[in-house]
């Protein structure tokens, strides 16, 4: 029988990676991430369990303990990975919830598998949760879990948090099994979103699609109250500041600038290679500014880190071709021997290197067409110390609601993006420092721990 817990997190992915040690032994290692950092203390305090997929296909590893957390793997077959994860989650729901910036693909067999896999996650949670326990379900891959779990275990307190945007009614209505998804979410006691607007979309949808009544952000469902609310996620600000201040990271930042030929302006982009992130439009803006002579090669250089992501999904394969063609075009037209205009890394870099890049960059370009929050924007700010630096930020990133001192732009307007980038490049150091200080102060109080506490507090979970 599974070990039982009073606090259970259910997420598509477990916060662990399997690594092979030098002597060939396989071991689990925590995979660092904001979510696990925020939830770690709560999980440890409640001898909590994290339910999720371990990464491979076929039989799941046996449950195990790691750094005070009970890890409970859920299996996925190759076919389930393709249909539930790559299909329904990442080719249907992901694009639909991001304003359909790519056309969502709807397939019956994908949603059937999505149901089956959601049922499996719900079953696992029902088995490990103690009487009256709190279960916190994460993100768009598991939207049916709250109601499936409530059917099996009405005694539980269930929270759900959506990390990505929640679309307006007109868009959501495209989805073939829309009512089932909505009912799935309504199985929770509290449904959290990144933005107030998303929470509003949700309560209005409940009325529109199911005729449910709501007062404020509270929906009446079968004699229960389901609360919706905005809980903007954040980063471990202190840890990020500490990392960036590390002398080795600072030295590496200097070295990066030197390797780039000590240009006047280093422009940086860091994203998963995803079509929502606006990587192409950012490259294009840079190319046009070079062509117009408003930026000059040697003086301005761009680094784009595009971490490989969802590589078997067609939209992502097409995007990679487009981005790499644009990089090739810019370097072909404007680069010189030994001085490329864009340094493009289609690889994951380690967190020290990432912090050094943030510390080295004069301008950070975060230009998503739509983004739930965008943690890269927040990480950049935390890494700047008192050195200023400019954040160019899309109005369509959740982070734009909080980071009002960024250089905000509309990513759908190429001239606007170019003008904003130029303003950021030309801004006075004193102004940049002033803007940065305001945003840094905000992030020190609004960190990821505060995010987790405010959600759990609203859900009515007692914490130390
Ligand atoms: C989803 C929502 C929401 C990226 N490349 C490397 C690397 N990263 C890290 C960044 C950052 C994270 O990945 C990306 O987070 P984002 O928030 O920017 O974007 P998504 O992955 O789309 O996340 C988003 C988030 O969930 C949380 O709710 O903000 O809106 O879409 O932490 O630093 N880290 C390292 N090497 C890389 O190459 N070490």
UniProtKB/TrEMBL annotation:
A GO term, aspect molecular function: alpha,alpha-trehalose-phosphate synthase (UDP-forming) activity
Any single biological process term in GO: trehalose biosynthetic process
InterPro entries found in the cross-reference section: Glyco_trans_20
Pfam family, one: Glyco_transf_20
Membrane-crossing segments per the record: none
Stated family: Belongs to the glycosyltransferase 20 family.
Name of the protein in its database record: Trehalose 6-phosphate synthase
Biological source species: Actinoplanes derwentensis
């Amino acid at each position: 029988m599974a070990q039982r817990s009073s606090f259970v997190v259910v997420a598509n992915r477990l916060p662990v990676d399997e690594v092979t040690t030098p002597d060939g032994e396989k071991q689990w290692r925590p995979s660092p991430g904001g979510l696990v950092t925020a939830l770690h203390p709560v999980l440890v305090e409640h001898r909590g369990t994290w339910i999720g997929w371990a990464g491979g296909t076929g039989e799941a590893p046996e449950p195990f303990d790691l750094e005070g957390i009970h890890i409970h793997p859920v299996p996925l077959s190759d076919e389930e990975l393709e249909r539930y994860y790559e299909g329904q989650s990442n080719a249907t729901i992901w694009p639909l919830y991001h304003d359909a910036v790519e056309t969502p693909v709807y397939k019956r067999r994908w949603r059937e598998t999505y149901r089956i896999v959601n049922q499996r996650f719900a079953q696992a949670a029902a088995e490990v949760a103690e009487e009256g326990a709190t279960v916190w379900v994460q993100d768009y891959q598991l939207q049916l879990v709250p109601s499936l779990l409530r059917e099996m275990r009405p005694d539980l307190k269930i929270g759900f948090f959506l990390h990505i945007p929640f679309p307006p009614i007109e868009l959501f209505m495209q989805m073939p099994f829309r009512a089932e998804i909505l009912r799935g979410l309504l199985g929770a006691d509290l449904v959290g979103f990144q933005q107030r607007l998303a929470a509003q979309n949700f309560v209005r949808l409940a009325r529109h699609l199911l005729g449910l009544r709501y007062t404020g952000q509270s929906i009446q469902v079968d004699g229960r109250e389901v609360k919706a609310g905005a809980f903007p996620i954040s980063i471990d600000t202190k840890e990020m500041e500490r990392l960036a201040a590390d002398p080795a990271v600072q030295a590496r930042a200097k070295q990066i600038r030197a390797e780039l030929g000590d240009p006047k302006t280093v422009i940086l982009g860091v994203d998963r290679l995803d079509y929502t992130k606006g990587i192409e439009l950012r490259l294009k803006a840079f190319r046009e500014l070079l062509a117009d002579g408003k930026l000059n090669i040697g003086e301005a250089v761009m680094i784009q880190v595009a971490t490989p992501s969802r590589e078997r999904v067609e939209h992502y394969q097409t995007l990679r071709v487009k981005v790499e063609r644009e990089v090739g075009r810019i370097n072909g037209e404007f680069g010189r021997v030994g001085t490329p205009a864009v340094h493009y890394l289609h690889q994951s870099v380690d967190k020290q290197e990432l912090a050094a890049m943030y510390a080295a960059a004069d301008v950070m370009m975060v230009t998503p067409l739509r983004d739930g929050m965008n943690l890269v924007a927040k990480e950049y700010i935390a890494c700047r110390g008192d050195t200023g630096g400019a954040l160019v930020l899309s109005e369509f990133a959740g982070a734009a609601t909080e980071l009002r001192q960024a250089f905000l732009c509309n990513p759908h307007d190429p001239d606007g993006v170019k003008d904003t980038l130029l303003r950021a490049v030309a801004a006075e150091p004193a102004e940049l420092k002033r803007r940065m200080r305001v945003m840094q102060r905000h992030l020190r109080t609004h960190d990821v721990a505060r995010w987790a506490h405010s959600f759990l507090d609203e859900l009515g979970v007692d914490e130390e």
